């Protein structure tokens, strides 16, 4: 029997049917496709980091509770009294851990769409039905439709990315609270873009018995670290902790995080610069007569006349953005553009203006 035949008879059919999460090759390109912070670590901070990891005990397993890293986060975030915190190898891992903890074939996962693609994939991992609920055309939450889906499916898990990826908008807190009250299970408010938004649910996390807040350091300048965290009532955190692989945060990351957070002013200043550039980029894209959706994240969603052609023209100019056309009915001809440095944004605007001029001929 061949390997192919054995796989066909062994691997879960729903896994055989999907492709792996595709990451495009970005070598030599201006990378505006993945919501990274474009600013590298200042050299002095890099040296301090190098010093810190010199002391890492590479021959030993890391602290399974990541106590120092968790304490550093608690400090940096001024967490509300009475919450606990669990770390993951990126928030992607925590999404999987949380889903494995609560979702199952009889306990569905509900999420708005378009939203973060890992929610659907993680339902598959947990062997749970996935129930998407479309956003309205202006990308606001369709609260009635969400409430109806919650009523009908009694989901064990609801994911809400706020601000939402890939649309960039922030949902109203009243809407979130209505869904949290309606949900019979757990609601995860995913704040990957909190640093770029005007509001956070974190101060309210203990006001409800069924909500946790998920965050990551990826979008604020530490995507390479792979570190996410979930904040909530200690009893929820204790349940997730049962399914966490014991050494999921490596010794190097545990040494690095306190050093990086001690210099949070570096990342705060970068976030402020990115917010400033977001406003400039959005205005300049509107000047090109494009539909630009309001963003509270470090990217801008824009509708162009022909997303495939614009994406290719930008790629030819060595700029990589994300083409969302075809991923959801509401995202026809939409590009998601991560806010870069001023020079990168200028290069993008020039290339896009050239393309739009050329294609009008
Ligand atoms: C990027 C992103 C994540 C994943 O972050 P990692 O910590 O890098 O795994 C989670 N949720 C949303 C909404 C995101 O956009």
What layout of secondary structure does this protein have?
Blueprint: H1 3-10, H2 13-16, E1 30-31, H3 43-54, H4 67-77, E2 84-88, H5 91-102, E3 109-113, H6 118-125, E4 130-134, H7 143-153, E5 157-161, H8 173-182, E6 186-190, E7 211-216, E8 228-232, H9 234-242, H10 251-262, H11 264-287, E9 291-292, E10 299-303, H12 307-316, E11 319-320, E12 322-323, E13 334-338, H13 342-360
Parallel strand pairs: 1-11, 3-4, 3-5, 5-6, 6-7
Antiparallel strand pairs: 2-8, 7-8, 9-10, 10-13, 12-13
Helix pairs in contact: 3-10, 4-10, 5-6, 5-9, 7-8, 11-13
The structure holds pyridoxal-5'-phosphate.
The site of pyridoxal-5'-phosphate (PLP) has 13 residues, from helix 5.
Compact description:
The radius of gyration is 21 Å and the shape is globular. Strands 2-8-7-6-5-3-4 form a seven-stranded mixed beta sheet, sandwiched between helices. It has a four-stranded antiparallel beta sheet with strand order 9-10-13-12.
What would the CATH topology of the largest domain be?
A: Aspartate Aminotransferase, domain 2
Please tally the helical runs, counting DSSP H or I stretches of 4 or more residues. 13
Termini gap: 59 Å
SSE run: HHEHHEHEHEHEHEEEHHHEEHEEEH
Instruction: Summarize the biggest pleated sheet.
Output: 7 strands, mixed
Helix-residue proportion: 40-55%
β-strand number: 13
Bound compounds, please?
Answer: pyridoxal-5'-phosphate
Strand order of the largest sheet: 2-8-7-6-5-3-4
* Number of structural units classed as domains: 2
What is the CATH H-level superfamily of the largest domain?
A: Type I PLP-dependent aspartate aminotransferase-like (Major domain)
Nearest-angstrom radius of gyration? 21 Å
């Amino acid at each position: 029997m061949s390997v192919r035949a054995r796989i066909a008879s062994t691997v879960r059919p729903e896994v055989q049917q999907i492709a792996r999460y595709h990451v495009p090759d970005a070598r030599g390109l201006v990378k505006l496709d993945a919501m990274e912070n474009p600013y590298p670590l200042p050299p002095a901070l890099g040296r301090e980091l190098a010093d810190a990891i010199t002391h890492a005990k590479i021959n030993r397993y890391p602290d399974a509770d990541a106590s120092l890293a968790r304490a550093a986060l608690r400090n940096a975030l001024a967490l509300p009294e009475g919450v606990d915190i669990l770390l993951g190898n990126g928030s992607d891992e925590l999404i999987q851990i949380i889903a494995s903890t609560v979702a199952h074939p009889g306990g569905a996962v509900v999420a708005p769409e378009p939203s973060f693609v890992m929610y659907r994939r993680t339902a598959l991992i947990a062997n749970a039905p996935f129930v998407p609920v479309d956003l309205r055309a202006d990308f606001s939450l369709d609260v009635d439709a969400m409430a109806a889906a919650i009523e009908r499916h009694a989901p064990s898990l609801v994911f809400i990315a706020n601000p939402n990826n890939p649309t960039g908008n922030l949902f109203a807190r009243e809407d979130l609270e209505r869904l949290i009250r309606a949900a019979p299970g757990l609601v995860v408010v995913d704040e990957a873009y909190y640093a770029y938004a005007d509001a956070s649910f974190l101060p309210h996390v203990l006001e409800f018995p069924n909500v946790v807040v998920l965050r990551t350091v990826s979008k604020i300048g530490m995507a390479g670290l792979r570190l996410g965290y979930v904040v909530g009532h200690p009893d929820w955190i204790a349940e997730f902790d049962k399914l966490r692989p014991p050494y999921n945060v490596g010794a190097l990351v545990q040494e690095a995080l306190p050093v990086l957070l001690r210099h949070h002013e570096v990342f705060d200043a970068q976030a402020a610069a990115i917010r400033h550039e977001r406003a400039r980029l959005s205005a300049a894209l509107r000047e090109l007569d494009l539909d630009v959706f309001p963003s509270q994240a470090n990217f801008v969603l824009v509708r162009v006349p022909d997303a495939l052609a614009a994406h290719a023209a930008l790629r030819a100019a060595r700029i990589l953005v994300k083409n969302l056309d075809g991923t959801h009915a509401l995202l026809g001809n939409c590009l998601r553009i991560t806010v870069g440095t001023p020079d990168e944004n200028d290069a993008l605007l020039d290339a896009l203006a050239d393309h739009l001029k050329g294609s009008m001929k």
